[in-house]
Amino acid sequence: MSSQLAIILCLLSFIVLIYPSIEFSQNLFSGDFRAPQAPNGIPASYQASYVQHKWDATGISHISTGMIYADQTAHRLRMDVTYGSVIASSFFDYAKANSDGTIPNYVYTLSPSTAVAGSCAHYNVTPAYPLFPSTILADYQATFSGLVTDDLFYANREPLQAWDILFGGVVSVTFFLDSNKTVVRMDFSSPSRSTFTTTRLFNIVPGSPAANIFANPCPTESPTPTSSSGRRSI
């Protein structure tokens, strides 16, 4: 019996050496394709450069670039943006969300140049770029939609994992993750005016940004808030 056991163990060791593990393909039309499980966590606090293109059926085509600062722990999001002759800093205070689900949004704008005095506006909005929890893909039971090649900023980058969720019941969101499970692109599609927004992130620094970055850009006696049914990207 002991000799037979030894032979079996030897054969099992040989098989393990040749086939150390079985890894299924993520290529959509491979015979051994298996959809991976959604990551339990992705970085939700970070700062990054971004470029964004938003368009809709009314003829709007809006391309902007700037910086994003996200702190999930403090529940705050800041986006600095430039487009045309506008420079603006937009602060979303998720810590003081309204009862209807909208987020207080303070926007400080310099236009048409930095030589003019800045103006401040206060809105209650549903942000087009959300502050998301690290568990968002698991929480929303994200669907794996394949591997996508996106070399806009980095040549020869490995294909990105694409994960789809339905956000707020009406907005379709696709998260694109790199090999480190970091979000490097997000696409939004909404039936409201047939709107589509794509955002690429680069120069990403994970971790919570400095607290003073989230200082309210508007004075204490800011303008009366304006309710908005639309979505703001800044």
Note the gap between the termini.
74 Å
Element-by-element helix/strand order:
HEEEEEEHEEEEEE
Mean pLDDT: 84
Percent helix, as a range, is under 10%
Q: Major sheet: order of its strands? A: 7-8-9-10-11-1-2-3-4-5-6-12
Q: What is the number of helices? A: 2
| Secondary structure category | mainly beta
Percent in strands: 35-45%
Cα-atom Rg, whole angstroms?
A: 23 Å
Write up what this structure looks like:
- Strands 7-8-9-10-11-1-2-3-4-5-6-12 form a twelve-stranded mixed beta sheet, with no helix packed on it.
- It is globular, with a radius of gyration of 23 Å.
- The chain is built from two helices and twelve strands; from the N terminus they run αββββββαββββββ.
- The chain is 9% helix and 44% strand.
- The relative contact order is 0.20.
- The chain has 234 residues and is mainly beta.
Distinctive features:
234 residues, mainly beta
Task: Describe the secondary-structure layout.
Elements lengths: L1 H17 L27 E10 L5 E11 L4 E8 L2 E8 L9 E8 L8 E9 L8 H4 L3 E6 L11 E8 L3 E7 L5 E8 L4 E12 L19 E7 L2
Parallel strand pairs: 6-12
Antiparallel strand pairs: 1-2, 1-11, 2-3, 3-4, 4-5, 5-6, 7-8, 8-9, 9-10, 10-11
